[in-house]
Each structure stands twice: as C-alpha cells, then as structure tokens.
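In the design runs reported in the main text, the only information available to the sequence generator was the tokenized backbone. The following block is the verbatim input for one such run; it is reproduced so that readers can re-run the procedure and compare outputs position by position.
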C-alpha cells in the first residue's frame, strides 16, 4: 500500500474485519450506512485480488449489506478451501508437456491429422 492509502485509511477508515489471509477490510467513516458506502481492502503481503474470499468479495461490492461475521461462514462438504491465484509462482499448475516441466509431450493419437500444404 502507498503512504497515501495508509494515511487515508488512518484518517477516514473504520476497520470492519479481517479474513483468514490476514487482509483487513475498511469502510469510510463519513459514508457508513449510506446507500453508496465506500469500502476497501488492505492486503497482507502482495496485493492480489484473488486473495479476497467470496464472502468478503460480496461485501466489498455491496452485494450484501453486512460484513461476514467471524466463523459464521459455513462451507458445504463439496466446497474446496479458497486459494489465491498461483500463476507465476512455484505452485502454479504446469500440465504435461509444459516447458517448465520438461517439455515432453505424449505422441498425438490417430484422431489428429496435421495440415500439409499441397
């Protein structure tokens, strides 16, 4: 975060809550409770929008009025734990044949015919 964001948050921000990643969510004290309330997030670590869990995303974009309560969000048995975007990291998905995984692809099967110019 920049020094301007830090000062704006210090002067006008009201802490609403934090998520499991350590991100902190704020609302503007002057617009609290109004129709167009100003809301923002201060990321812990690298600012990456995919670090925002769905329940906080809904609050940030005014889909829901009230912020999620700690421990009130229940996951369904089929839901996976939220993961941020891993692109560009060591944990990124690399399919077989990727240059970063050795570059060896399986031979094409019989359903593929390459174009040959006549």
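Verbatim output:
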């Amino acid at each position: 975060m920049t020094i301007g964001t830090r000062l704006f948050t210090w002067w006008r921000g009201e802490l609403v809550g934090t998520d499991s990643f350590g991100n902190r969510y704020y609302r503007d004290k002057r617009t609290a409770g109004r129709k167009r309330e100003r809301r923002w997030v201060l990321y812990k670590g690298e600012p990456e929008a995919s670090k925002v869990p769905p329940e906080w995303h809904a609050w940030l974009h005014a889909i829901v009025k009230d912020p999620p309560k700690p421990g009130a969000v229940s996951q369904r048995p089929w839901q996976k734990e939220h993961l941020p975007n891993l692109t560009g990291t060591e944990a990124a998905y690399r399919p077989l044949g990727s240059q970063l995984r050795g570059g060896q692809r399986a031979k094409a099967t019989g359903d593929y015919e390459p174009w040959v110019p006549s």
